[in-house]
Every structure is written in C-alpha cells, then in structure tokens.
Specification:
The chain has helices spanning about 15-45, 50-70, 80-100, 110-120, 195-200, 275-280, 285-315, 325-335, 335-340, 340-350, 360-365, 375-405, 410-415, 420-450, 455-460, 480-485, 495-515, and strands spanning about 125, 130-140, 145-150, 155-160, 165, 185, 190, 215, 220-225, 225, 230, 235-240, 245-250, 255, 260-265. It is of the alpha+beta class and about 525 residues long. The chain has 3 domains: about 15-100; about 125-225, Periplasmic binding protein-like II (Beta Barrel); about 280-515, MetI-like (MetI-like fold, Orthogonal Bundle).
Amino acid sequence: MAVEVQNKPKPSSSGSSATLLSVTIRLLLLLAIDGFLIWFAVQAFGQGFNSLGIIIALVGAGVNYIVLVRDMYPLRWMLLGLILMVMFAIWPILLTVFVAFTNYGDGHLLTENQSIEQIEKERYLPEGGAAFSWTGYKNAAGEYVLWLQNAEGESFLAIPGQPLVPGAEAQDLGELDDNGIPASVGEYEKLNALLVASDQTIPSIQFGSETDGVQIRSAREAAQLQQKYVYDPDTELMVDQETGTEYRAVEGTWRSTSGSGELAPGFRDNVGIGNFTRFFDSPAFRGPLFRIVTWNFIFAFLSVFTTFALGLAIAYIYNDRTLPGRKIIQSLLLIPYTIPSLITIIIWRGMFNNQVGVINRTLTDLFGIAPAWTVDPTLAKIAILIVNLWLGYPYFMLICSGALQAIPADLYEAARVDGANAWQRFYKITLPLLLVAVGPLLVASFTYNFNNFNLIFLFIEGGPPIANSATRAGHTDILISYVYNFAFASGRAKEYGLGSAITIIIFLIVAVITLF
C-alpha cells in the first residue's frame, strides 16, 4: 500500500524577518517614549510638581503594560486617547479635588521648606554693623568681587568666602581714580552702573567670610548684614533675630505668637473643609451667591428653550419639500454655526456697544432710544440671551431636521383622516416623537449652558457689577465666571483653593441635574 507523504510548508524567512523588524521597531519606539516620560517625570519631581510626576509615572507604566502584554493588544488602538484622557481630564479633576482642601493661592504657593528658605534669606543691619559704598568687578568666569569704602574713607576688597582685605594690602590693583576706586582688580574688570543695575546675581552673593560678610543692600550701599529670621525645627518657630519675635505656622501662614504680624511667603497646607465652610458661611460670598445661582439656572433654561424653539421652528418650516429655495436658505441659516463662537461673541459685543454699536445707532435713528445694554442688569441679560440664541439655534435646527425626517409620514396621513388640524398634528405627533430623539441633547445643552463661561466672560465679563458686593460679582455672572473672577481676575490675592472648592460644588450641581 502506497503511503502518501505530505510536505509541510516551511516558514517563510521573509515573514520571520518582517515580524522581527516590526517587534524591533515597536520596542525602539517604546524605549524612546519611556525615555521621554522618565525625563518628564524627573523634571516634574525636581521642580516640586509631585502629583504631575506621579501621573506621568503611572502613564508610563500603563503604556508599557499595554504594549508588552499580549492580552492588552486591543487597548493599543485606544492608547493615545487613554493617555490624553488621563493627562487632560482625570489628572486635572484629581488636582482640583486636592487643591480644594488646601490654602493654595497667592502667598501660599511654596512648600514649607521653600517658604523657610525664602524667609531665612532676609537680612538686616544690626546695631554697630558697618555700611559701605561699593563698586562691583567681574571676571571672565562670571565671578564677582567688591571694592568697599566706608564713611571714614577706608577701603576694603571683598572676595566671597575670604576675610575683607584692607585696600592698602590688596594686590594687582588697576589705576585709582579721584575717588580711590581702582579701574580693575587683577583679572576682574570694573562693572559700569548699567550692568550692575541689570545684574540679578550680585545682590544674592555674600562677600567676605561668615564673620565679616557683606551683602549689597541697594545700588549704592553694601553692609555687614546678618540673618534676620532663623527657623528652629525643634520648636517649629521662626525667630526674628532683630526683635526676638516668634512666629508659628498656622494653616500655612507664619503668624506671630503675640497675635500681631505675619511673615511672607507662607506655604501650601491642608485646611480640611475650610474652603467649603468659608464659602457657605461668609456673608461676602453668601450675599451675591443666591442671585448668581438663580440667574445661572434661568440663563441655562432660557438658552435651551429659545435655541430649541427657534431651531425647531425653522426645521419644521423647511421640512416641507415643496418650499422653493429650501436648501439654499437652510445652508445660509447654518452660517452662525460655521463661524467660531469667539469671533461671533466679540462682534456682538461691538454691536451692543452703548455709544457706537450698530444696534443703538439704529434704534436711535428709528425710535430715538439708546438702551444701556451693558449698564442695565435686565438689558444685559436680554443681550446675552440674544447672542446665545444666535449661536445655538443652528445646532437644534440641524438635529431637529434629522429627527423630523425619521417620523413616518403615515402618522400624519392618519391624523388628517381623523380630522386633526396642523397644531394638533404638531402637538400630538411631532413634538412627542421629536423629544424622544432630542431629549438627551436638551439635557446636554442645559449642562453646557450652565457652564457657558466663554459667552459670559467675553461678552460682558459678568457685568454690570452688583452694588455693595464685597467680592467681584456681576448681575450676569454665572457660577463658573464668578469663580474665575474670584480665583484669577479679581485684582486681589488669588485663592486657587477656594476656587477649586467652588468648582467641586458646581460639579455636584451639574451631576445632580444630569442624573435627574
């Protein structure tokens, strides 16, 4: 009996080479990404951004896990999106939550060690300390020396880390001018007044030894200064060497134990729920808060209602296929949607200008009136709703046009047979079926307008101001613009911790709206 032998195909050497090449390229790319992420993380940790460094390290670990583990292969197609989501969505949320429980803001931007280091740099002239006029010199290596002259006419050469040298004993001096100041000191060349004024390094250098050290106080004076503040880690007190006053850190602020006086800068510290209780308990915040929240809901509701109503009306009218010029008119009505909202808002801002705006000029010519759009609170709110109507109706016109096409024509024919008029057909058939399709989009639009910062800030910056308000608050402010004005643009100390706490409150409000 003949036995038939089948030869198995040998693996293609070209296929193996291609696989090896692809794996090599993948690993090289991974190494390059790892190198960049490691460098980025080291930079973040080195500059004190520990949370960012941790996030970068986690992203790097996730990238390696997804690329190297075979079971994670499907996630490779989403890798870039996942990285962007972590870096620009998850991390900012976590950072906002963290900052909300701290005193982070102007005067509290540093860590405790950085704050101590900054305060301990301050110097004072003790009683009996010598003061000098000074002239600076610099060599090619960027090193400095000073030529000092006291009130008695004595001269000294001050070199960093060395005792002061009397002028008569100094070596390699250049030619002395009429004031007894040498043109050079060895390899050190004299600095002119302009160079000294622009030099940011020389004031931080201590010239001379520790016992007779001299530092520059001003453009004309140097003195034997001593350290003014010394931190005692055992007692956790900052002691003023000049007055003996002691300062203790209280929630990131160095406060005098005697009850009067503070030192700056402070440092970041945990304050628990202090920002939240301050927001609800302080009359300064509570005063305009109810008015702002009420307008916030009214603005969001009216924005959704008016844009949906106008968009639906246009879509319903032009749903008639027999209407002449239907497609051209619909295309023209979409123009507001094609222009960036930033440009549109600025254009409307100019049109509503009280003095030279085209709207007021037209109303003045026709009716002899010039409404104060940016001064009267009610008119300002109406103007904002008009601008938002212009920005938002094309969106609802588009989605309503699509939803209307999906409603079966048989329903309308049956309604006509039953004797239903046009209003009844719209109210009983069109609107209920339409709301099923666009209902989620209405909720999304409400959420968007609830936080429509761009319109409020660019159009009128939340104005006009609320009279007698202790904080910067305007009649058209919504919560997010109020928080922005308070945390970033109020012209006073910026309080990022309090701003983050209010942001969380806004998030919870929006979450509740979305759920219900």
